[in-house]
Every structure is written in C-alpha cells, then in structure tokens.
C-alpha cells in the first residue's frame, strides 16, 4: 500500500502557481469593476483641516472620493472592529474622523473607472493638515514604558512568568557575569504580493470578496461586524497568497475601503496597495533588551535577568513573548523577567514570523555565547551543561525534546569539532572567518478546527477547511494526510481551503496549521471512513457483514479485511450505491487539553554558521549554515526543508540586512521600497543545509507534528552574530549587523 | 502618474525639434529610472520623446584609437563587448557591478548618465527635497542619510541644501577613464569632458548635469588609454548584489618598471558626481609601486569630507576602499 505522509511529495499547487493559473486577490476578472486608489497621510500626527477633491471629481471617469467627510455611519463599538488577532485596545478605523494617528494613514479612497485614472486623480487631491508634534523615537521615550494591557490575546501570549528564586542575590554572588543591551530595528513583512481586495457586488447586496488574508473567516467576521452584515451575505475567498509572514493575520485597511466603496456605489471594487503603502501598517516592533547572566565557574548558569522594551501604537497594545524563553531553554534557578511597552505615534505592530521568538531568543543566545567566551567553555558544551528536559516557567516536562540530538548532528555536519575557540583565529588575506552557533525554540501548539471530507460520486475524495496556504505547503500536506487516512491515491484527492463557506478554521499562523487543520482533516476522513464502512456492511452480500471497523483497513481506494486483504469493497462501489449522492462527513478536532496541560510542548533547533568578514570593510557573508531541527514528525521532507530554508534566509536577512528606518523629523519610515529595504538576493545565500532529527511525540497532537513555520528563523540571527564575534572579536548587539557597525 | 503624450521620432533632428517645441517633454530610452520616477509622481513629463529608433546603438573605433560607445547601446551589450572587455576592463567591471541583469539589458549608456539620485527624500513627496522641489529644503541633512554624500555637498543654505549622491557605477569608471560625452543640440554638436558633465549641487541642487535644454547625448568617447593591465573597481554595499554603492572606487594605473606613470582614482556613492581629485592622483606619479604611500593618497582624496550622522562611516570606509583598490590595481593584492 502506498502512503504519502513522510514522503517528499511535490507541491500539489505547484503547477498552478508556476503556470499562472493560481489567482491572487487582485487578479480576478469581474465585470464592471471599478478601481480604488488609497491616499496616505503625509504627517504622523495632527488633524486634516481640509481635503480638496473637486479637481479629481471633475475628471470624467472618476466616480467618488471617500474621505472622513462622507464616510457612512458604521459600527459604533470597538468590539465590532476586533478581528481574531486584535490586541487589547481600540482598533484603527479608516476614515473615521479627521485625526491622523500615524504617517501613511489612509485618508481617502479615489474610485474611478480605471486604475490609471484613479491614480492620476489621487495626485490632484490637496490635503491640508494641522500638524501636532509626534513621538516616534523609541529610545527617547523609554521612560514612558509601562506594562501591557491584558486581554484575550494574553491567553496565547502570556505575560512574563513570576520571578524564580532571588535574582539579585544570585547574580551578585555569581563569579562569572555577563550583561548587555540588545537592540533590533523595526521590520516590515514585505511579501511579494501586495495587499489587495476585489469586492464583487452580487445580487441582493451580497458580497463575494477576494482578499489577501491568512484567515478568510477572519476577514468575513471583520466585514460582517463593521458593516452590519450577516455572515451569509459576506463570502471571503483567499485561495492563494503570495507570501504573508503574519501580515495577513489581521484584515488590512484596503479590505475596509474596498467594501465601503462597493456598498456605497453598489458596484464591484478593487483596491490594491502599493509597495510604499506596505510600510504603513503592522511591522515587527523595535525592541530593546537588557540581559544579565550569572554563572558559576564550571558553567552552571545560576541567574538571569531579561528586561524587554517594545514599541506599540497609541491605540492598541501589541505584545509578543520576548523574555519567557530562558526558563524554557535553561534550568536557571533565579530569574527575573519583565516586558514593557512604549506607545508611539505609529501603526500597531503585528506578528511577523516567529514574533517575539526571533526577538528574545537571539538576544538570549548571544548572551549565552558571551558567557561561554568568558568562561572559556565551548558554546555547545555550555548549552549541554545547562540542558533541561523541563520547562522551568511552567514547571512541566517536555512532551518531547531532541535538542541534544540537534546539537550533535548539527555540529557533526558542520564540523564544529575543528573550531578554534579564539576569536580572529582564522583568516585568509583580509578575510576573517568565524563560526558561531545558537539554539532555537518555538511553541508547538494546536487549536480547534473543522474539516469536511466528501467521497464524490466519481469516487474521488474532496476535503476542505477554511484555512490558508501562504506558501508553506498546507495544500500538499493536507492532501497527503487525507490520502493516507482513507487509503486513496493522491491523484484522487483534492484539498481545498481559503473560503469562508468552508468548515471553521482559525487564522493561519504561529506554526499551528499542520497540527490544527491536519488533525481536523484526519478526523474528518476517519469519520467518513466509518460512515463508508457502515454503508459497505449494509450492502447486499457484503463481505463485511460480520466485521467490525477494527477488522478492516483502507488501502488502494478499497476497504479491505485485515485478515484477508483480498476481501475488499471499493469506495467507488459504496458511493455508487448511495442513490447518486456523494457521501460526506464534517468533523471537529479539538486538542486534548487534559492531556496537553501536563506537558510543555516546543519545537527546537540548533543553527551552526560560518561567516566571512572583510576586516577593512566590515562586509559580512554567510558562507555556510546548518540548521538541525527537532520538529516532531515531518509530514513532507520537501516542503518542510523549504520552510526551514526560508526561515534560515530570513535569519540571514534579519541578522545582516533588514531594517525599516524611521525618520523622526517626519515620523515616517523612509526606506519604503525594495531597493532600499534590503532583503537577501541570490548572491547573499550560499551553502544552506537542513537536518531533521528523529523526534517521536505521542502527546503533542494525534499527528505528532510540531509545525515548522517559525523554528527555521529563530536560531539564525544569534548564530550569525556569534560567528561575527568569533571572526572579528567584535560583539555587535544591535541588529542588523551592517558594515558600518564593524568598521 | 500624470497623463503624457508620446512621440517616437525617426531621426535626431526631429527628436530634438520635438523636445524643444513641447513644454515639459523628456527623452526616454531604456526607461529603467524615468518610469519608476513617473509612477512616484517625482517626474511628471507632459510628453515622452522615445529615442529608441535613433541609430546610436553601436560601438565604433575613433580616429584617436579609442572607442565610441553609442548612447543607445545597452549597458549589458557594452559591458560584454569584446573591445570593452579587453581594452577597458575597468568599465566592464563597473557596469556589471550595477543594477541587475534585467535592468542592464534595458538600460542604455546615455540613460545611465542621467540616473537620478536614490535619496529617500527625493523619492517621497511627503518630505522636502530641493532637488525635486527647489527651495523646499533638504529632508536628508538632519534625517536618515546613510546613503548620502560626504564630499562636495551643499549644506549652508536651507533652500539649496543637498547631500544627494549620483548612483551610477558606470559613470565612476567613465570618470576615471577621462571619457568625453558627445551631445547634439539645435546649435550642433559639442563635447563635454566627463569631469564637467555632472555637477555638484552648489546653489542649484535641482540640476544634475551641465547639459542644455534640447541637447541629446549621442555617444560617449573613450580615449585610447584604457588601462587594461592595472585597474580595480571595488563596490561596497549592504548586500552582495543589487544595491547601490555606499562607496565605490575605480582605479586605473599605468606602471612602467615598477614605477607609477599615470594614475586615476574616481569615487562613487560619496558625492553628487563621480569624485576625482587630480592633485591626489598626482601624488602617485613616479612612486615605486612597492613603497607607494596609498594611505596618504586616500587622505588627500577625501580631504574635506563631512559626515551627517548616519553616513559618517563612509569617510573611513572610502579611505580603506581607496587603499585596497590601489593595492589591487597595482597587483599587490589579489582581486576577488
């Protein structure tokens, strides 16, 4: 019997994507479509005193300009504007009033018969402001740092744990101490595909919306609540997404504007953002972290203090888990962890790949490297010496943790044993060569979800759930799971997603989709199998008349007796006898919380990196990197490897290149183009290697998977920074490590 | 983007005539920079005169033993041209250090000279920029100026302040090679030495070059001397490819019997034009290669350099790049 889970199955959506058949939100052809162009605020704080739209409106073909002055009455309460990923606070409402809260705020939507006309008309609109002083400089306003407001989001993002032991005493008594301040800049997600919504105005005022989102039902919820519509009148479709990295976890403002225009004009409307406008909403927040570590001379870490300060907007308290990781990675008896926010005149930050994890863990892992150097202990040795099988914060054992094996296999593949511990010990001409490593960790979570499995009249299996595939391989792994559960050839299985009409699924993020939706797909297919078996038993002369479900297996599109597989009924035969109807089953999968609460659950990784640094110019190149991952069961080694590679590339980007720079004169991100917001090009990426270590986990979820979306990035920035230290003897605690910092 | 009319003339005279008779008209060749600027509303030409039909798309020998690079030759075809590669390898290297393969396939030699600065503020209509909007001020000077100029800036008067750089790689090599720009206008043809083609911001930062309205670049002449033996082009940037230079250095040397007999050094990414300083270059003449004091040359070349905060690192980086490029050109260092 052929099985697919665990095999490097090609992407089932690959051909559609490379041949252009896969359609993205802005690509749907709709009759009588009109186009919206967003006008963005030029100031960061103040009030619009005048918007002159006459000149634009006089152009033939310009239909309307929507501003705060003509916005219709919409939902009154903040609650209506809260999407599934909304942090505590008061969500931004586009065109609500004349107040400007951040630079780039959408202040008008020009709607015209063509995109070009809308864009031109937008250039004719004059806006006058009463400017107020803005505060965007994070470091200048640290004194305003305060505790985050708690809300529903705190369930998934718990605040720092209570102090353990006595940090102050333990640190003071520690013979070896390190301390440092770690900073990283703001970053914007910048997926290839710009945010866009095509709103189709249907009969009876119904809306079909093609939206770029990581949760079709999240967009549906938002639109329904804000515009006072019933769910059945709002259908959101998001079949393909050209990257998102978390930016699609919240509905973006183009969705609001497109729906508003469509409803007011009773016409189909498309609104697509520009690359510059991709810098006008959520981003990874600037964060400053202070870390102090105390250890005994043998390398036992006895004390940690980790204080983080992060930026948020004036209207919402976006939080991440930044400081909680030390207790999960190291058995440090005395710890004191704090996390505070500084509200600024910017848009609310937003989850970006490994939110908080790739902020806090790199700082911690650089500090550990500093400690290893000070102690004269190999960095891997120090981590093994302080290894734990328990999460100290939760005081629970890990459901599985093969991090030790990650260290061993990663080090072996990399050749770590040959490392000369002395910084600046390896050079070739002007090139200094350094090796560094770091640990990564990310939560392995599962949520509830539903899926439908249908055996069609043609004997094909069609499975669906309203989740998303942002390029991660969701389509493919769900198809594999469904095929294996019902013993179907993969060519006869079609998995569909990204439609709010489909069974309920949560927003796609946090590395939880494989576990969450995968479990739902498995259960739905199992339930369908039970139903088919019952039907098979009732068939005339059924060979299963006296058999139980336990006595049969599903293979080769047949139900077969385990004791004699030649005794079989094909699934096609079963559906043929269903009066011309398909057979379907919809099921819910919920995590086994009673079981899960007894365990800590995480994916782990170890990254080993070689850098070359020109000692005169400070240019850094990552010439080699190995990441070993303990991520539970690997459903598809091919898409899994791509996930980790993508994470590693972004790790290089974060460590060396990526940075959204605010000009505080204008309170505005200035390098808002892909020419000046640097991400790696092919020439930056050299030899990357991925290892999946064997990890069996019977607790984490029925599939034994941990999710791979974030774990690939978490360890890389610190491994690179540590390699740069090893190469140059310079400890750069401020990411990205651009050449000027090494001169 | 605003509406514009479009005209594709078949010969030089009608191209120039059309441009002069239409207010707000601009020439377009490869369009790799102009179209971007139009989309951002930075450039708002009323008319585009497309010169791609004109016949300036060849590379020919000149009477003086040099090469004439047609203005409409693409950067890619120029960089990979046998005579350029063999006789002017510095130019070939510089071109290939710029942009991406796709852009070099579209961009022309003439167009490369007219690239506008990549200053963030020049591109962003929400901020002041004297180059884009004369008299509005300079956002960069007290703002985010990582990529900005350290030499020859204009920073005394707010209404003319400008610390923009010229972004080209090709032009840095052309400056080092003492190329000559051939232009044709209503008054006929004239030549402009490369050093005089681009200008410093001075009191008119909105003017990038010294060409007159209605003049069209038809070719770039390379002198016979191509420095094929001793040359180097170093480009330092924020990633390995497809980024503008923070600092670039073109060096061309002539060495006889271990003595330097001619030296050219041009810097990119540091000023409003490719930066040369003949008296600094003269310090090298007659020096023995093995003992030449490259550090002093670097100091002299960057004399008067001024940082504005984010870009202050460029002063030291430029010196180091000059020394390394001289070492590479003199073959004291391997070229990577």
Automatic annotation (TrEMBL), chain A:
Residues 19-133 form the Aldehyde oxidase/xanthine dehydrogenase a/b hammerhead domain. InterPro entries: Ald_Oxase/Xan_DH_a/b, Ald_Oxase/Xan_DH_a/b_sf, Ald_Oxase/xanthine_DH-like, AldOxase/xan_DH_MoCoBD1, AldOxase/xan_DH_MoCoBD2, AldOxase/xan_DH_Mopterin-bd_sf. It comes from the Bacteria. Signal peptide: none annotated. GO terms for molecular function: iron ion binding; oxidoreductase activity. This is Molybdopterin-dependent oxidoreductase. It comes from Larkinella terrae.
UniProtKB/TrEMBL annotation, chain B:
The keyword Zinc does not apply. Keywords: FAD, Flavoprotein. The keyword Flavoprotein applies. Transmembrane segments: none annotated. Residues 1-227 form the FAD-binding PCMH-type domain. InterPro entries: CO_DH_flav_C (IPR005107), CO_DH_flav_C_dom_sf (IPR036683), Diverse_Substr_Oxidored (IPR051312), FAD-bd_PCMH (IPR016166), FAD-bd_PCMH-like_sf (IPR036318), FAD-bd_PCMH_sub1 (IPR016167), FAD-bd_PCMH_sub2 (IPR016169), Mopterin_DH_FAD-bd (IPR002346). SMART domains: CO_deh_flav_C. PROSITE patterns: FAD_PCMH. It comes from the Bacteria. SUPFAM superfamilies: CO dehydrogenase flavoprotein C-terminal domain-like, FAD-binding/transporter-associated domain-like. Coiled coil: none annotated. GO terms for molecular function: FAD binding; oxidoreductase activity. This is Xanthine dehydrogenase family protein subunit M.
